[in-house]
Amino acid sequence: MIEFRNVSLIFDKKIVLNGIDTTIKKGEFVSIIGPNGAGKTSLIKILLGLIKPTKGIVLIEGLTPKEYISKHKVSYLPQQTSINWSMPLRVIDIMLIEENLRAFTVFKKPKKHLIQKARQVLDLFGILDIENKYLKELSGGQKQRVELGRCLLKDPEILVLDEPNTALDTVFNEKMYNILVEEKLKNNITIILVSHDIGAVSRFVDRIMCLNIKLHCSEKPENIDYVKLASALYGSTTNIVIHKNGCRSCQFYKTQ
Ligand SMILES: Nc1ncnc2c1ncn2[C@@H]1O[C@H](COP(=O)(O)OP(=O)(O)OP(=O)(O)O)[C@@H](O)[C@H]1O
Ligand SMILES: [Mg+2]
């Protein structure tokens, strides 16, 4: 279980997060939504021990984030890519970079079963056909698929994704959510996904956390009052439309 206990953050005298008090259960798929500057990235950086809250604490299974991460596998896909795409590496090399570095120091090739596993993940993300392409040759969406694949390859217990789908096409975006739900069910992974894609997340996640400095709600998607949410997060003039199966424009979209 992840516990946020009265977490507040101040940057340059500005309140970025105020009294965040909530828990995320093991194996839960949670999405954090909120407008630009709401504190979403800051909150997950606190969860990962990358920044210290001004007040309050985060505990993961009773440990501080740093203690937990030193003992358990946690994958993080940051909002801004951490990969240098101009490195002269191929897709398969970057998938196995940790293994490649280890193998290099002991003058061995990466183990066959690891290469096979990396290729399975590439296949899952629909990019096995580009395994030998160089990183600098990839499109934006292909880069995002590689990053997502790397996150899953690690077999994480906790997966933290900060807007992982900004460059994904509609069809693969849907596939990504299905992959995440499947992984969660199969391996009991806790998934925390930051997104602006309220309509899509509400169809896939167990809970939506609505953040704008304060935590405005933390509910199952079906219990969320989207009118109240729109005014709390985005201002009273905004409408949020959640598309459901049977929605005519969604049907139209599917047949394109
Ligand atoms: N290192 C920093 N120093 C000073 N202020 C910061 C820093 N990082 C973030 N902020 C400020 O904290 C606030 C929240 O930023 P954060 O990146 O958490 O927002 P966000 O909800 O992730 O937004 P977005 O949807 O645009 O990614 C913003 O006002 C931002 O300017
Ligand atoms: Mg952000």
Automatic annotation (TrEMBL):
It holds the Pfam family ABC_tran. One of its GO terms (molecular function) is ATP binding. It comes from the Bacteria. Residues 2-238 form the ABC transporter domain. SUPFAM superfamilies: P-loop containing nucleoside triphosphate hydrolases. Keywords: ATP-binding, Nucleotide-binding, Transport. SMART domains: AAA (SM00382). Belongs to the ABC transporter superfamily. This is Zinc ABC transporter, ATP-binding protein ZnuC.
